[in-house]
Automatic annotation (TrEMBL):
This is Competence protein CoiA family protein. It comes from Dellaglioa carnosa. Coiled coil: none annotated. Residues 19-54 form the Competence protein CoiA-like N-terminal domain. Residues 59-181 form the Competence protein CoiA nuclease-like domain. Signal peptide: none annotated. The lineage of its organism: Bacteria, Bacillati, Bacillota, Bacilli, Lactobacillales.
Amino acid sequence: MIYAKMEHHEELVCATDFKRGYNYFCPGCKERVTFKNGPHKQAHFAHYKKTCHYFSEGETDAHVIGKKLIKLWAEKRHKQAKIEEYLPEIKQRPDVLINLRNSQLVVEYQCSPLSLDSFCKRTKGYKEHGYRIFWIIGKRHMLGQRLTQQQAMFINFHKNIGYFLVYLDAETQCLILKYEICFENLYGLRYRTRIFADATAVMLFVKMNSRNEVLALTRVELAGQLTKLEKNCHYFNRYLKNQIDYCYERRQLFMGFPLCCLSEVRLPPIYQHEDIFWRIRVILELQKMTANSITRSEIEVMFMKHQKITKNFFELPFVNRLGRKQVNDACIKSLIKYRVLIPIDTTENYQICHKIEWANDAALKKEKLR
């Protein structure tokens, strides 16, 4: 921790202002703490015994600098901000607590790894007690072509910039915005990047920006997905092999799957595996159904079952519901386009077409896309 209480004083003292000859105490557990400083660690206070749950100790320079920057940016906007202000009702100490006009905003700057359970617990604790919460992440969580659960759980959504992440680079003291993040089958993530000098510049950009992401895929891009998937079948991949075996056991050729299994749009960034796999299982189940009709709620239950079996999704606590709705809407739209489902009326009831065409190989499907 970088703040402690000096003996006989109520105000918190920053570790950089440490004075010898005084005793210092943890403002959380009230136990005496010691001062530490070194070439690889920022000056900080540490407990003699690791029994306190209020503070983190031995912070990196990046984390300390980041918190100070966030506080400075808030104060430039004439907002009162405090670092490591203890919240007794939830026994948590946010990195920065900012007082807004009608609410309080918690800003967490996460540089180190964090488990999904810890993330959810901390976020839920703040929300349940009326605090707004915003996560900024460090460079170790920087996006690449593939998403991880460590990155996915921080993803949020805004109508002007789509799915996004905000990074703070303590070295350059700037904010990095990854926005309009989406997922394309077999090609991974697509997103835009912008760098800002401070938080005010980010907020102005978000306010003024108008989303111009192109979500629809061309027929050439869809054919490219088929080509790449066909190549992947020649390499050993246990997950893909399981999907191929699943089709074979049901007397279908995996690469012969119907075109409705290909998503014709770029999808929300919630995928661990390609969208194709759970869609194929849905088609196989629809084919063997004896009923001639199905409701929207019934087909969504079917979607959920196969999405769970194929372990398709990451957990995105802020946008799970929105992301999965967009995924389900896109799939139903494809099933209607290729007349696997035929709308009966305006109450979201559908007639099932049991004669679903499977191709003998991928080449035939590519011909249809040209």
